[in-house]
Amino acid sequence: MRCFTVLGPSQTGKSTVVEKLGSLEGAPRKSRSPYGLNLTEFTFGNEAWCALDAPGPNEALAHAQHALLASDACILCVSSAPEEAVLAAPYLRIVEASGTPCILFVNRMDEPRGRLRDVIAALQDYANHTLLLRQIPIREGDRIVGSCDLISERAWRYREGQASALIAIPENAAEREHEARSELLEHLSEFDDWLLEELVEDREPPSDALYAISSRVLRENRIIPVLIGAAGHGNGMMRLMKALRHEAPPVEILRQRLARAGNVDENKLTAVSFHAYHRQNIGKTVLVRAFGDGLRQGASLGGSSLGAVQDPANGRSSSAITPAPGDVFATVKSDHLPVPSLLTSGATVAPPEWTEPPTPMLERILVPGSERDENKLSETLAKLSETDRGLVVLQEEGTGAQLVRAQGPVHLRDLCRTLSEVFHIEVTDRTPSPIYRETIAKPSEVHYRHRKQTGGAGQFADVKLSIHPNERGRGFTFSETVKGGVVPRNYIPAVEAGAREAMEKGPLGFEVIDVGVTLFDGQHHAVDSSEHAFRTASKMGVRQALSEGAAVLMQPVFRSEIHIPSIYSGSLVQIVSALKGQVLGFDRDETAKGWDIFRALVPGGALDDLARALRSATQGIGYFSKTFDHFEELYGKEADAIVRAHEGQGVAH
């Protein structure tokens, strides 16, 4: 079986392309994952094929990345409108990072939305590989009525519902065809000395030799050939499928590529797991592509026995199913297989770095609808994060509530639907509160005496303490300057412990940071003093001193690294400034052509707004990662509102 992925932005007709390709020589067999990855098996040219139709939304980019792990080649569907080329930038990025041979298919050419050369020029801004036209359109006025193949120099006229008709190259297309063909041959000659010599000697190379060179160049992933068509009308589908058949590399090349990337012995690389999902009453289903023989039920794979092997199209299990090298199969009761991963018989190997999904930007607390759901939610989210690497599951600081980081609102909605439909857990979501702190603005001193008589031994401790603001980031410090044994040495650690306890909650209701405490005097009682008494005295004294120290609210500030296509970089200065952030600068992204990495300091309370503004400004393409940088003072009405809201939450709890 040969396998390819069809990927690209939403609304570019990917599913229609797969449907038409699968129906060229018979009826295809289909299955669909809850995550939107469609699998289509069909026959073409007496060979078995599997097409993986990756979901289009940027929030599902991780599933497209993982599909490439199992693909000999891919088809990148793009719009015929030049201004929409940027939407393909994330897909060009992951295709090139993966090293997967790619054919770029400009779909919906029946809709006159711009010149093809402008589309290619716009896309080239995001591709390190040369995008090389293999066909040009034949026009009648504003309509595209056919195409001309630049290698065979044959022209075809589209016919609705029928195979295209062979025609002579129209006179109005002859000059453009000659120009585009010369450009094609010039680029191909960069990878073939024989062709270069033919061109230098001004000899016309035969078509079969050019097809062979083109096939080799694609298999070696040197260029990205560009084909055109309109899948909705079936136009260009046969040519696209023939290009895949003759030019896409065999499964052995994929095995070699993954073995090198994963530092695995090629002969031991048995399979690759690339997708998984949970089904009601069935459990975890894992999709696997075989590289070796003997992968039947009970065989050793990934260090344990392989569970029931299923036909991925109909879900039927059979102990007689023995996938051949290249076949895609499903397996259940194989929970030991992580997804994605490279698999040998005895071990699982982490996938290449390029499969790492974008950092999820949307943070939400999931609130279960019942106590029963609360008990199940944590375990269920852990299961889902195993099958969806775009999802990160954490616990909220302070409350321990389930916090999830999703790729965006669509991803979050799909997660909640899966929890409801598959696991019968109903949840609502809320925005998590930023982690605020407080400190003091001025020093103060306090004299605190703790005295208590309870019938037996009493409690007595007397401390004199000074507190002062520390420099930012220094945290809590403790020192002592007592003399003459007024506070015995063995009680001083208890004084420090009490001061630390007082820092857990300050006058504003938040943890106190960057404060220094000094014990400079005190008294003790030979009988009634104890560690507990001095700890209590210190805690109560520091609390009193904090209330006199002009408490200041501290907000978290995060260093954000924003990844965006370069055309959007100009808009980010205004976005960050509007969120009261600080622009640090930007550089070209050395790993992705046409992308910038923009750095800024952003208040923690504005990160949700940053994610929303970034999605809006970049059509859902941009994303950011964040790391905590420091706390800074927050004053005025904004600070007052945060303190009041926190007090209200305390009453509610």
Structure characterization notes:
- It is a single chain.
- The chain has 653 residues and is an alpha+beta fold.
- It is built from 16 helices and 33 strands.
- It has an 8-stranded mixed sheet with strand order 2-3-4-1-5-6-12-7, with helices on both faces. A 6-stranded antiparallel sheet has the order 17-18-14-13-19-20.
- Strand 13 (271-279) and strand 14 (283-290) form a beta hairpin.
- Helix 2 runs parallel beside helix 3, helix 5 (171-189) packs across helix 6 (193-200) and helix 14 runs antiparallel to helix 15.
Question: Can you describe this structure in just a few lines?
Answer:
By secondary structure, the protein is of the alpha+beta class.
Strand count, sense and barrel status of the largest sheet are: 8 strands, mixed
| Helix-strand category | alpha+beta
Cα gyration radius (Å): 32 Å
Tally of DSSP helical segments: 16
Q: Which segments are poorly predicted (pLDDT under 50) over 5 or more consecutive residues? A: none
* Number of E-type strands: 33
Spatial strand sequence of the major β-sheet:
2-3-4-1-5-6-12-7
Task: Tell me, briefly, the overall form.
Answer: elongated
Layout of strands and helices, then pairs:
Blueprint: E1 2-7, H1 14-22, E2 29-32, E3 38-44, E4 47-53, H2 61-69, E5 73-78, H3 89-98, E6 102-106, H4 116-124, E7 130-133, E8 135-140, E9 143-149, E10 154-159, E11 162-167, H5 171-189, H6 193-200, H7 207-219, E12 223-228, H8 237-247, H9 251-262, E13 271-279, E14 283-290, E15 300-301, E16 304-305, E17 308-310, E18 328-332, E19 341-343, E20 348-349, E21 362-368, H10 371-387, E22 392-395, E23 402-406, H11 409-421, E24 427-430, E25 437-440, E26 444-452, E27 459-469, E28 477-480, H12 492-502, E29 515-523, H13 531-547, E30 551-565, H14 569-578, E31 582-588, E32 595-603, H15 607-617, E33 623-634, H16 636-652
Parallel strand pairs: 1-4, 1-5, 5-6, 6-12, 7-12, 28-29
Antiparallel strand pairs: 2-3, 3-4, 8-9, 9-10, 10-11, 13-14, 13-19, 14-18, 15-16, 17-18, 19-20, 21-23, 21-24, 22-23, 25-30, 26-27, 27-29, 30-32, 30-33, 31-32
